[in-house]
Design a protein that fits this description.
Blueprint: E1 17-23, H1 27-38, E2 45-51, H2 58-63, E3 69-73, H3 80-88, E4 95-98, E5 104-105, H4 109-119, E6 123-134, E7 140-142, H5 143-146, H6 157-160, E8 172-174, H7 175-179, H8 193-204, E9 206-219, H9 221-245, H10 249-252, H11 254-274, H12 278-287, H13 292-300, H14 305-319, H15 321-332
Helix pairs in contact: 9-11, 11-12, 12-13
Length: about 350
């Protein structure tokens, strides 16, 4: 098979899986991402490639593949959530997967996830572990280990309220679970577009996952910067939205809402500390000092935020050395990496 996957090149009129790729000036990693789809051991798929008015070589790269990749271009750049919705309208598959243009899939991703839908008609969302790859220093760690939490299966809405465990490039949706939603990706969000949608699907459907990494998620410094600035605001907006759309939400999920509010306040305190507003940060940390995370944050807030991050990053690098060997093995096996 050549690099453009000419084997299995005739697209099905109704493919099993529609793969949504949203692109904005993603030429640097794009071929690696697309190749990782063509390398899948599961072959019944189409790519919906939505170009959000790129000005680099992304269009030429995408168009160099065969007709299994359906290319669409927006005349102007729009928010990512809106662009995802535009691409979704073109999807024909029974299942919908997502791959941003600087991430990549491992070869057996779809082969291992699709049977979980087939085995459980109530499964609306299937995901997996992933390898978080840090662009700044080349280190990596599995996502579940990174968030220190392995998720449950089944009805996991209450769990997801307090745990951001679903890596976007691993998510696969049953198309019906998406179409039952009155809204798909909410363009009002910048950080929580996927979290908001996955929560709403998990409210109505069961979820399952493959307990091994099936994708590689590239973490950029710019992404982390945006996350630090906006995550508290967007998590709060997410809770407010759930309160509006689900009757008795506050009564049914009191404990989880309290936990989420604490998580929001912790992020607010970190942001204040990061901006050298340490007095205001300590007021927040002191408010919840009985919780170890807040106590530790209060203690270390007497040191500059940047110095603490240097220490943590050094620890992170040393703890990930063993996983870098896994990365090398994956690269040597010919697997390919988000927008």
């Amino acid at each position: 098979m050549d690099k453009q996957g000419m084997k299995h090149s005739i697209p099905s009129p109704t493919p099993k899986v529609s793969i949504i790729m949203n692109c904005l000036n993603s030429a640097q990693y794009l071929r690696e991402a697309i190749d990782s789809i063509y390398a899948q051991t599961f072959h019944d798929w189409e790519i919906i490639f939505w170009d959000n008015a790129s000005s680099d070589d992304s269009p030429a790269i995408a168009k160099s593949y065969n007709t299994r990749l359906r290319y669409f271009r927006n005349p102007t750049t729009v928010p990512l959530g809106q662009a995802r919705n535009m691409a979704l309208r073109e999807a024909r598959g029974e299942y919908i997967a997502f791959l941003d243009c600087d991430d990549r899939w491992l070869p057996t991703k779809l082969e291992k996830q699709i049977p979980l839908f087939e085995a459980n008609p109530r499964a609306g969302l299937v995901f997996s572990d992933a390898i978080d790859f840090y662009q700044s220093d080349g280190t990596s760690i599995t996502h579940f280990k990174n968030v220190r939490m392995r998720p449950p299966r089944g009805k996991i809405f209450s769990f997801l309220l307090t745990h951001l465990v679903i890596p976007m490039p691993t998510a696969v949706l049953r198309a019906r679970s998406l179409h039952e939603q009155p809204e798909w990706f909410d363009p009002a969000f910048q950080i929580c577009t996927d979290y908001d949608l996955f929560l709403r699907i998990a409210h109505d459907w069961e979820c399952d996952f493959v307990d091994e990494p099936l994708a590689m998620y590239r973490v950029h410094e710019s992404t982390m910067e945006r996350l630090h600035k906006n995550i508290a605001i967007e998590l709060s907006k997410t809770l407010d939205k759930l309160h509006r759309i689900y009757p008795n939400f506050d009564n049914y999920f009191k404990r989880e809402i309290r936990q989420c509010r604490r998580m929001i306040e912790f992020q607010e305190g970190k942001s204040l500390w990061r901006n050298s507003e340490t007095k205001a940060a300590r007021i927040i940390f002191t408010r919840h000092i009985i919780f170890p995370k807040f106590f530790c944050a209060l203690v270390v807030s007497y040191l500059p935020y940047g110095k603490i991050m240097q220490i943590l990053n050094a620890f992170r690098r040393s703890s990930r050395e063993s996983l870098n060997e896994m990365m090398t093995d994956l690269n040597n096996s010919g697997t390919g990496t988000k927008q």
